[in-house]
Design brief:
295 residues; Rossmann fold; two-stranded antiparallel sheet; alpha/beta; 5-stranded parallel β-sheet
């Protein structure tokens, strides 16, 4: 009986994981590209959702003559961003350049949210399990027993059948109009940072230095009321200044440019819509070119 159960579990594991390997849905497509392709990209964009919906590789490639890829990962702070970078580089090679999106929330710890994005790869990439488990704290059976981690996630397959969301090199602009409902309910916005993650991030930057990868920090545009409601803003900005100084990293700050005062460029208070994202990326590309960062 036990052998039969195990056999069913293995077949189910292979079937569901194989289906998700082919999914164009946002949370899987980025990792699917990591494991199903080996194309070299000389410029990577690292960050959370403020990376994947705001930095257009098409524009960066066109204006800078690079082959870029957007690693942005929704709802995810630097711990997850570093993991995705690690697994990407394993199969695609070390990039020459890295744009690191930094903001009020980058240096915190993410866990739990959409962690099913890792599930299809558990039996093909044990290092992914090891790296993510430090913060996700998976139950033993999730890591070692086939199919078990999919139990209770019946909506995963159905959701991805209904909601294909193809990305272009990791990017997808959102054409939505501005919705400021959530911001109106907040009297304060709390920036987040964790001393452990600052230490880990510095280790990451040191490895990039050894690899010869040039890094630039970018504060992408954010609606001005967010910063006005954040009492930790100056502390967080000084933290990034200190790290940038230590590693000789340039910073481009777009958090107070004119578009930050116009909701026509945002779909919510922290994310640019497609129009805003492509205007921002165009400006970013010209600024990168003007400071000679790629030289």
């Amino acid at each position: 009986m036990g052998i039969v159960v195990l056999l069913i579990a293995i077949i189910g594991e292979i079937g569901i994981s194989y289906f998700l390997y082919k999914s164009d849905y946002r949370i899987y497509s980025g990792y699917n590209y990591i494991y199903n392709d080996t194309t070299y990209h000389d410029l990577l964009i690292n960050g959370n959702s403020r990376a994947w919906v705001q930095y257009s590789p098409y524009i960066l490639d066109s204006l800078l003559g690079v082959n870029s890829y957007n690693l942005g990962i929704d709802g995810s702070s630097i711990n997850r961003q570093m993991v995705k970078y690690d697994r990407f580089v394993e199969g695609h090679g070390i990039p020459k350049y890295l744009i690191q999106n930094v903001d009020l929330f980058t240096m915190s710890i993410s866990a739990g949210f959409e962690r099913e994005q890792y599930y299809p790869y558990f039996f093909i990439d044990k290092k992914l399990v090891e790296l993510t488990d430090r913060y996700e704290n998976y139950p033993w059976a999730y890591k070692y027993f086939p199919l078990y981690r999919y139990i209770g996630f019946n909506e995963i397959v159905l959701k991805h059948l209904r909601n294909q969301e193809e990305l272009y090199k990791g990017y997808r602009g959102r054409p939505s109009k501005y919705d400021g409902t959530m911001l109106k309910t907040l009297t304060t916005v709390e920036g987040c940072y964790d001393s452990i993650m600052i230490v880990e991030f510095k280790k990451f930057l040191n490895e990039l230095t050894i690899d010869g990868t040039k890094v630039i920090f970018v504060f992408a545009p954010i609606y001005h009321e967010v910063l006005e409601k954040c009492s930790e803003r100056e502390v967080i900005y000084r933290m990034y200044d200190s790290i940038a100084c230590e590693f000789h990293i340039p910073i481009l700050d777009y958090s107070d440019i004119p578009m930050c005062y116009d909701t026509a460029y945002f779909y919510n208070a922290t994310h640019l819509n497609k129009t805003g994202a492509e205007l921002f990326t165009t400006k970013l590309a010209h600024d990168i070119d003007s400071i000679g960062w790629l030289n």
